[in-house]
Amino acid sequence: MRVAIAGAGAVGRSIAGELLENGHEVLLIDKAPTAISVERVPQAEWLLADACEITSLDEAALQRCNVVIAATGDDKVNLVVSLLAKTEYGVPRVVSRVNNPKNEWLFNESWGVDVAVSTPRLMSALVEEAVSVGDLVRLLRFSHGDANLVELTLPEESALAGTQVGDVQWPQDTSLVTIIRGTRVLTPTREDSLEAGDELLFVAAQAREEQLEDLLSVRRTDTAR
């Protein structure tokens, strides 16, 4: 997979290193000569250019990229890069960094963003996850379809503890994608049982989050079906 990253600062270089270790082809783009540190990520391609300029993106051959990541420290730049990547070059997947939480509402499909990553939101989510059992924590927002990646740690008092995944009547527009149990990461099947203390990761429509939280957190008198 070919990935272009706009912004070769600490964030961009870290992402590039991870992707390269996983066997992907990476191009780092930055307009600041001081940011071009080839020796720090020698396996990557480097381009000294303004990622907001069409001529620069032509030189980067953005149309050959499977993913573009807008990782600069400037939200305006990240929005422009995202929009150009999606509308001018038809990049299938555009991921954008949100620096200021007040701007998060802008990072949606109208600006070409498929996935918006807000560092402050992720940090607060991690804090909430560390202290909250039974509370739904939003980890990541997906622009298309108004869906989010959410997490909930199943409390001991939940009526679903001990219930098989296939026997639960999940809300519409929700999907259980992962069960984290201790050090194990499980891909759930219908026969897997839910256990108190399980960290459950869902992709869910925002409108269904409250319903999902109620289902998992509250001890109910009726039997899950």
UniProtKB/TrEMBL annotation:
Keywords recorded for this protein, A-Z: Ion transport, NAD, Potassium, Potassium transport, Transport
RCK C-terminal domain sequence ranges: 137-218
Span of domain RCK N-terminal: 1-117
InterPro entries: K_uptake_TrkA, NAD(P)-bd_dom_sf, RCK_C, RCK_C_sf, RCK_N, Trk_Ktr_HKT_K-transport
Family annotation (Pfam families): TrkA_C (PF02080), TrkA_N (PF02254)
UniProt KW Amino-acid biosynthesis keyword: no
UniProt entry tagged with the keyword Metal-binding: no
This protein's name: Trk system potassium uptake protein TrkA
